[in-house]
Amino acid sequence: MNSWKNTEISRRHVLFLKRLQAVRPNLTLLAVVLSLAAFSIPHSIGAQEENESSPHSTARLISEVSSIQPGTPFTVAVHFELDPGWHNYWENAGDSGLPTTIEWTLPEGFEAGEIQWPVPGRIVAYPLVDYGYSDEVSLLVEITPPVDLATGVDVTLGAFVDWLICETVCLPAYAELSLDIPVASGAPESDPQWVDVFRETRNRLPTDVDGWSVDAGLTDSGYRLSIEPSGERVSLPDSVYFYASGSSVLDHAAPQRAVVEDGRLTLDLESSAYAVQPVPVLRGVLLAEESGSWDAEGVFPGLEIEVPVAGAPAIQEPGSEATTDVSGPVGTSQGFTLVLALVFAFFGGILLNLMPCVFPILSLKILGAASHGGENRARIRNQGLVFASGVILAFLVLGGLLIVLRAGGAQLGWGFQLQAPTFVAFMAALFFAIGLNLMGVFEVGAALTRLGGRPGEPSGYGESLASGVLATVIATPCTAPFMGAALGFALTRSVPETLLIFGFLGVGMALPYLVLSLAPGLLERLPRPGPWMESLRQALAFPMFATVIWLVWVFGQQTGVGGASYLLSALLLVTAAGWMVGRWQRTDLRSGVVARVVSLGVLAGAALLVVQGSGQEAPLMAVEEGWLPFSQEEVERTLAQGRPVFVDFTAAWCLTCQVNERIVLSTETVLEAFRERNVALFKADWTRQDPAITAALEALDRSGVPVYALYRGSPGASPHLLPAILTEQIVLRTLDDVLSP
Amino acid sequence: MKVPAALLIIAVIAVPTASGVSAQMQDPEIGVDAPGFTLPDTYGNDHSLSDYSGMWVVLEWLNYGCPFVQKHYGSGSMQELQSDYGGKGVVWLSVVSSAPGSQGYYEPDEMNTVSREQGNRAAAVLLDPEGTVGKAFGAKTTPQMYVINPDGVLLYNGAIDNMPTTRLSDIDGATNYLVLALEEAMAGREVSQPTTQPYGCSVKYK
Fold first, then answer.
1. Residue A190: alpha-carbon gap to chain centroid
2. Which CA distances in Å does A594 have to A582, A588, A602, A643, B45?
3. Which of A:149-168 have CB within 8 Å of B?
4. Which of these, A79, A48, A86, A45, lies nearest to A61 by C-alpha position?
5. Nearest residue of chain A to residue B157 (CA atoms)
6. Does the interface ipTM go beyond 0.95?
7. Element containing residue A418 per DSSP (H, E)
8. Cα(B124)–Cα(B51) distance, rounded to whole angstroms?
9. B22 touches A at CB < 8 Å
10. B55 touches chain A (CB under 8 A)
11. Chain A interface includes B76 (CB < 8 A)
12. Are A670 and A732 in contact (CB under 8 A)?
């Protein structure tokens, strides 16, 4: 008649023994303790044979339907019968106790939903208050069978259920349950044997009501929850109690004061002593205790609450308990004051002069000044000032542009320019052209040449300003990898502060040239101008070409080998254009003009190739062995399993990231240390724009890479950030500190 | 320094006797002086928190009958922590707040026997059958752990680790909050998680 079958498991003895074996070091000791515990328990009614694994309670797996249909979800329940005076626990057990867990063993393709918990009751053992169930309870779970399931056969659902059963003393209990159920092609029919149990349990599930106004705010000692029902039939209950879902959210024993006024119910809740900061969202069930229901018809007793708390600090992990981040992560922006940021920006700016993309330009600029050092000091000084203004102005404009774009909602961080393959390609072409120019392949009369400050040719103020701006633009690909973290910090500040930091970066970068132009005495110490300057100029083309290699590599990471080939072909056209201009530059006027026109056409072709190449998609990047692609959900799931997590936020265009990965993160010592501690490794690759990764970075208060975050293996664990420059020692020490023992 | 300490001792002795039965459950504040107390151990010697001024102190709420406690003693991990930190000069005190007749309560001699069987390596097992010290510390579960620094300031209150289960196999791989707090605090750093939700059996108060 009944097609389902509830199989009592005879393997319980085996399981019990297995558990004992896990304890080998102190088996006898455990036996002593267990027997002691057994003696202290008053043996109540009908001790049954299976009591060794599930004392004072029985669990069975029941189904709402007598047969299932492929693809149609159905509901099953773990049904508990508890001895009088004994109880088990809700999803938040309260001050003590343990929530029941269910581990499913299902046929392939089946999926089990979350446990649907009926509203609990309070178990008061003054001064402690627990949340749980007594007598009888069913925990509902929706199961979805696959669409392609074969009909006409039985399937077996298995559940390993683990719960704590307490009177005044507590005993762990478990059961391995299973249920056979036939698969039919027709719609599932409800099983008359359990229809009442399911109906009654559903009546005790929290109800989500639309249209009611529910608010939550902070008070001195906790939260204030306020509810205004809509609709006429509603009568506000006389006495209510709010069960919070998270365990360290509320003081479980504290009285909850309710006031009803003008059709609005206000409830004052006291925060848990174990809460480190208020939760951003209050979740739980509001139970109408005495009247037993929220509406006049007595339909639902528990109101599902999930309401943002006004004024609560945001926490990154949704749904996590309040025990998040108070730690001062290693090397974060905490304590990174504005003054310090300005100092960093200033010295960072000076350092930029040594970057391969900037060094040639700046040193030639200086040499240019040196070559006409004796001519007009006032003019040189003024030019120095103009050039410096150009640099600072360009930095301010770039910073402002970034602020505006971000205000417009773009998920961008510093280094964002390099996330656009087109930008990378044009920078590569520009650097390549500058390199050719330095080599002497061609000369152009405009800013590009002056940028290099051809020895002996004095230049105008306009050109000085332009070369300042251009030097900055050229410097940006270098600022991104080296200054990402600092500029990321800058972007988290107010607009004037951000611009100030960008400005200081400009001041730093302009400083060497400025000093030289203000103190021409220094210039005179440089070697006398001569043919060596031409050699140096050509030699400086090599750092330019090196930069091109790097940019092509970045472009290749973004667009694959196909894309990179387009870019290299574009560079060939740039060479052709440069050659044509150079070859016919000093011949008669007409050939010169023709050469320029043709070369412009060739350059247009190069641009076309770049655009074409930028559109290529890189093949899905093969993630290195041992590293998983980053996703916030996957990280949270891993943490929930108690496994520590390390996230490497990186990008191909970020030099610091690449260096860290090669000399630290991929060494055997470090990988072994990760393995030893069972750390799950995630790589968040930001080479191309990725809003999910940008959001994750922002949650960490960063807007650029590299960022390294280590999480202890616990749900909602707070991240510990490592410094931007890693050493093996730093990583190993942090692992020890954070994950010990 | 001496005078407040003496006053504290008087206060400590006075409070439990004066407040009597209806001691209120209180959650002590982190970062301020831990509630003072004087309790007898199983050999009849009194221990006051002020005796240990200048030393690190760990308080462990204990009930040998509780399966959550059995997890940590059964695996040997609790005893290991007791002897490890004992070796580093930390004063480890196990406190039993079970009321007479309830689970975990033993007469002093019996308690010594059970503690020997369990291999308890704490500096002392303190008896708090009235539950006054337990309530002053807001002890809700066994095991629940507290860390007090040499200045008598409470630095940690909460669970022993992040695996609220009775399974022995969950000891490995768990993050031990007590160790974390002790290591951070003893290295002079701020305790990153000064409070965590304690788990376990309820303390069997009177």
1. 44
2. 12, 10, 12, 68, 106
3. 162, 164, 166, 168
4. A79
5. A274
6. no
7. none
8. 13
9. no
10. no
11. yes
12. yes
